[in-house]
Amino acid sequence: MPKFRILTPAGASFTTAGGGYDYEMEALAGMDAEIIEAPNNAAGFIAAARDADAVYAKGMPFTAEIIRELKNCRIIALGSVGVDSVDVKAATEAGIPVTNVPDTFIDEVADHAMMLLLATFRRCMEQDRMVREGRWGEGRPALLKIPRLMGQTLGFVSFGRVARAVARRAKPFGLNLIAYDPFLDETVMVEHGVVPATLDEVMAKSDFVSMHAPARPECQHLLTERHFKLMKPSAIFINTGRGPTVDEAALIKALQEKWIAYAGLDVLEVEPPSHNNPLLSMENVILSPHNASASGRFDEARKRRVGAELALSLQGQWPMSCVNPAVLQNTKLRRWQPVGMGRGPNS
User: Fold this and answer.
1) Element (H, E) at 151
2) CA distances (Å), origin 125, targets 111, 132, 207, 314
């Protein structure tokens, strides 16, 4: 039996052809560790997980019921930015660090957000249909109603890593930038050339609203009918964050009743959507299947990061990206140091 047992749900991962755990195991090489698949359901996973040294969480909800049974677990590692599939509160109460991959896909998601912004603003899908349907002459008159992009205002709801990367991309287009984030020091926004604003100000003043709020309980339906009514009739709503942060029924109503002009959505409240979701038949909506983070390096980068977090914890060191850092002081894990660096006075 291996010294370290890392348990993960069977058949549940974002994989390219080939799958497997080779990338995760690179950091674990020489540690006598093994990634073992367990049943992809609560009862089966609990039966296998009581003596697990670590959990690689994916593909199923990790509820308080499961977490309470992890008696020997040093870490719950996720290969995603979002941590909504894990009951972080229960993990904190159990003294188990939860890690995510917060910075691996930043550029991809930011690129995707800018793609949706430009495609909706220049009515890309409509223009494509006009050409294919023999309505060549309708294209130019349609765009003559659209203002110039330069000088428009892009507002961010939440100003984390992805939003900051979008801001860097948007600035050369001549967009004015404002943002709402109650958990962030306003000086961080100013350093990025962004003007701090209230949520109502972002919704009312922006020509584009880019949603980046995380999937936390306090952000559930953060944007409601009231917020969409504040937006300009010409405004465009972009969401590359999480679907449940938006009251989707309110967004649908806003699009149907022309409170806003357009939406570009990579995420939906329920995924995949029902065949009768009105968004699927709206011509003023561009959709993508929650794939903004995807690129040729997606699997490799995130899996290597998961392996590194698992290796650190199993070697008794703090992980790099802990979403509940308060637990670290109460574990047997110690603060890690890069190899070759001495301890400074504040270590």
Assistant:
1) none
2) 18, 11, 19, 50
Please confirm, yes or no, whether 271 is among the known catalytic residues. yes
> In the sheet that 208-211 helps form, which strands lie side by side, from edge to edge?
195-196, 176-180, 153-157, 208-211, 236-239, 262-265, 285-287
Beta-carbon contacts of 145 under 8 Å, excluding residues fewer than 6 positions away, are none
304-332 residue pLDDT tens: 999 999 999 999 999 999 999 999 988 88
Query: Could you read off the pLDDT of 235-252 as tens digits, one per residue?
Result: 999 999 999 999 999 999
Domains of the chain, earliest start first: 4-103+296-330 (3.40.50.720), 106-287 (3.40.50.720)
Q: Half-sphere exposure of 70 toward its Cβ, with a 13 Å CA cutoff?
A: 32
Choosing from 74, 212, 242, 305, the catalytic residue is 242
Of 191, 257, 271, 283, catalytic: 271
Q: Determine the average pLDDT of the residues in 279-294.
A: 96
Residue 212 a catalytic site member: no
Given the residues 168, 169, 221, 290, the one annotated as active site: 290
pTM of the predicted model as reported, rounded to 2 decimal places: 0.84
Question: What's the token pair of residue 125?
Answer: 């899908």
As given in the structure block, the two tokens for residue 258 are 């022309």
